[in-house]
Amino acid sequence: MRTPVKKQKGQPYLEAADQWLSTAVSQVRQPIESLFAWFESKLTIECASRVRSYQGLLVQVFGRLAAAMFFWYHLRACS
Description:
It comes from Thioploca ingrica. This is Transposase ISSru4. By secondary structure, the protein is mainly alpha-helical. The chain has one domain. It is about 65% helix and about 0% strand. It is built from two helices and no strands. The mean pLDDT is about 75.
C-alpha cells in the first residue's frame, strides 16, 4: 500500500518526484475512500477503527467486500 510522502521536520518543500507520488496516490485513494464511505452510509457497516478484535476486523473487511461485489454485480445486471 502506498501513502503520500510527508515533509521532514524543517524541510521547506517536497522534491518534485515526492510531490508527484503524493498527488498520484491521493488521486487514487480519494475515490476509493469516498466509495467505502458511501457503502458505510448506505449499509450501516460499523467503522473499522472501532473494531477491537481480530474476528470483528474480519467481519468488517469481508462485509465491505461482499457489499462492494453485490453493488458491482447489481449495477452490471441493470445496465
